[in-house]
Amino acid sequence: NQSSLKDAYKNDFYIGTALDINQIEEKDAKTTQLIAKEFNAITAENIMKSMFVHPEKNKFDFETADKFIAFGKKHKMFIHGHTLIWHSQLPKWFSEIKDSAEMNAALENHITTIVKKYKGKVDSWDVVNEAVNDDGTLRKSVFFKALGEDFIAKSFQLAAATDPKVDLYYNDYSMENPTKRAGVIRMVKKIQEKGIKIDGIGMQSHWHLNSPTIEEIEESILEYAKLGVKIAITELDVSVLPSPYGMQGAEVSQRFANNEKMNPYPKSLPDSMQVKLAQRYADIFKLFLKHKDKISRVTFWGVNDTQSWLNDFPIKGRTDYPLLFDANLQSKKAYYNVIEAA
Ligand code: XIL
Questions:
Q1: How far is ligand 1, taken at its centre, from the CA of residue 309, in Å?
Q2: What is the rounded distance in angstroms from the CA atom of residue 123 to the CA atom of residue 38?
Q3: Which of 105, 141, 177, 342 has a CA-to-CA distance to 282 between 20 and 30 Å?
Q4: How many other C-beta atoms can be found within 10 angstroms of the C-beta atom of residue 310?
């Protein structure tokens, strides 16, 4: 009979949440209390991304990120930095660089300035985010186009040289897909073969009710662990909505034009679905516990359902119910199942 998520898993791994600006500013006491009670790790959902901290080539802006760090310190939490090098949410100046010397200089200035600023404050960093495609090849990002695959090892090297103590992670989604996994493992091995430090692999874990299967998740945990790195579950949520990825363009726009049609559960999640979600979370946490020696942290991508990014992704206007707390910050059945699994 445990009183919170972090207490229930205190001997196993950190239990984290992503926080966005409103939550950090502590605008609502109930939300702040809930965060402090349930979680002992935080990740910035957006505010440490390059478009926010490095908006112009010669201008850094750490005001909001500093508030995030202060929040974590105040509540004695493990602080995870997300993310140094990512092709998305990139400021215009960065996304337009084509020249390799210019990209090298930008990468160096970006990584060393940020890692130095938060040396001793941030406990781990996502150094590179989403560099591998689903087919296992490397994404042809602006970084790749300018520097080739070297940008990955170089990013880790810069981060390690700036703060030798902070844990350095590679983070990505669909990490359970065997083809993608093979690409990630190839990439990590190349970093290791160069003698460059990489401490961990982040499995984002934006999952669905039935996929990936527990067996697929387990296989990935075991395969990544063979690299001798820590594994973190970095952005966990379980969508209850059908994935729209298989739809054709016309169908997507048709549905986009009519929010109601896109959303099978407009008002609240039906009881039968609550039960399914809770069962899924129980299965997931039982697996995490089985491999607790390999898992450093499990972080949810948001605190409660209304605030989840999935309400706008991959199509805007859907209502999803992927987290453990509902719109009124009440614990869902899934919450109790996660506590009971411990
Ligand atoms: C998402 C945020 O949750 C949204 O608020 C934002 O609009 C887009 O980014 N992979 C990642 C995260 O690494 O940074 C993304 O976060 C979700 C997917």
A1: 7
A2: 19
A3: 177
A4: 21
Q: Is 46 in the pocket of ligand 1 (CB under 6 A)?
A: yes
Is 140:130 a contact under the CB 8 Å cutoff? no
pLDDT in tens, 261-273: 566 666 678 899 9
pLDDT at residue 149 in the model: 98
Rounded Cα distance, 342 and 329, in Å: 22
pLDDT value for 263: 65
CA distance 326 to 92: 36
**Who's near 330: CB < 8 A, 6+ residues apart?**
none
The candidate with the shortest Cα–Cα distance to 288, out of 5, 2, 75, is: 5
Cα 82 to averaged position of ligand 1 atoms, centre (Å): 10
On whether ipTM exceeds 0.95, the answer is: yes
CB of 21 shorter than 6 A to ligand 1: no
**Residue stretches of the chain with pLDDT short of 70:** 1-2, 244-267
Contacts of 166 by beta carbon, 8 Å cutoff, 6+ apart: 115, 119, 122, 123, 124, 125, 159
Domains and CATH numbers, the chain: 14-240+249-336 (3.20.20.80)
| Total-model pTM | 0.95
Q: Which residues contact 261 (CB under 8 A, 6 or more apart)?
A: 254, 255
Q: How far is 262 from 258, CA to CA, in rounded Å?
A: 7
- Which residues are the active-site residues? 235
pLDDT in tens, 226-258: 999 999 999 999 999 877 665 555 665 666 566
Cis peptide before 83 (omega within 30 of 0): yes
Q: Is 45 in the pocket of ligand 1 (CB under 6 A)?
A: yes
Q: Is 136 left (phi over 0), alpha (psi -120 to 50) or beta?
A: left
Model pLDDT, residue 1: 44
